[in-house]
């Protein structure tokens, strides 16, 4: 078990980590890495959303296509292909299909961090719960070894348990908020992009 003699750990994330047992340290390290990666993905996602939003505003105003060039390139290739007995309506539909396919691939790449945020948001509390259970088991192990139920015996395991819980929530809460907010933002961008694709396909068909 992860039992250690009583020591007064400073009430800070670093202090709780340094005074934790080996298993609790491993759990906290994993959750800390997940929390840091979560914030990296959130910050990157915010920049991606802003860049795409500005690009859509720019093309609506008749400006440069910018980062949306894969979608415009798909439209250009589809429009240059001439099929026998194809009507204008059929050509427009074919261009729309090519552009929508390119847009789906483009948006999947743009929102690449969302699945990771979903995993951290759902798995983070359970990883923290594992650390919580391990800390409580350590407290019971200490009682069994010392035949003593004093605070000095049970406190280290309880402290590890609460610290693991806190680390799990610190990773999961930002991930859940980031996933929901960014998912809604990307959904709004997809609607704007669909309108742009329809207008663009109509103009070049």
3D structure, described in words:
The protein is mainly alpha-helical and 205 residues long. The protein is built from 6 helices and no strands. Helix 2 (22-60) runs antiparallel to helix 5, helix 2 runs parallel beside helix 6 (151-204) and helix 3 (69-80) packs antiparallel against helix 4. The longest helix is centred in the C-terminal third of the chain and has 54 residues, at 151-204. It is rod-shaped, with a radius of gyration of 27 Å. The chain starts with 12 loop residues before the first helix and ends with a helix. The model is unreliable at 1-8 (pLDDT under 50).
Please give the radius of gyration in angstroms: 27 Å
Strand content: under 5%
Mean pLDDT: 81
Distance between the termini: 71 Å
Number of helices: 6
